[in-house]
Design goal:
This protein is an alpha+beta fold. The protein is built from three helices and seven strands, in the order H-E-E-E-E-E-H-E-E-H. The chain has a five-stranded antiparallel β-sheet with strand order 1-2-3-4-5, sandwiched between helices. Strands 6-7 form a two-stranded parallel ribbon. It is elongated and about 85 Å long.
Length: 202
Amino acid sequence: MEANNGANGTKNTRKIISLGLILFTVTAVTGLILGFVHEITAGPIQKTQERLKTEALSGAMPEADAFSLLEVASGSDAIVKDVQEAKGKGATVGYCVTVTPKGYAGPIEIVVGITADGAVRAIRILNQSETPGLGAKAPLPPFSGQFDNKKVDKLTVVKAPPSAPDQVQAISGATITSTAVTDGVNTALDYWKKNLAGGGSR
């Protein structure tokens, strides 16, 4: 009986080792495949992201033909991610401030074009994960187009059609998203006033 128990124990040990080796092999092979896929896709993904960012910059500041990355001023709001100086024919025509306010379902990445005299030229929403059919409508012209050429100190969200230049009508059923985008634009404007008004970061 003891001999049988010993044989069974040895058989079980071998089975465990065999299963462990199989699991290790599968894990290693999977890791190699994932690594290979990442190497293959990383380049195209990065190029796509760069292209979309370039398109967003051009859309937010259409008068510009070149953009240069500026250092974000220390102590600025955490949602300010980067700032680009926009130049047209060699002269500074404004700035593009990228902000990421918190929306209903997560951060919303927005490029805000601000002219040299402090007007919102236009905005472009780069990334968002808002509710389809509601907040996901934020990038569309009926909402985002309301920010075009706004020269005000601060924008506010209203549910009815705007009755003043500083008002933006919310997307129906998506007040949180609408407010988040507007807050992001206000943050970009505030950054411009504190750091860029007058022609450069300081």
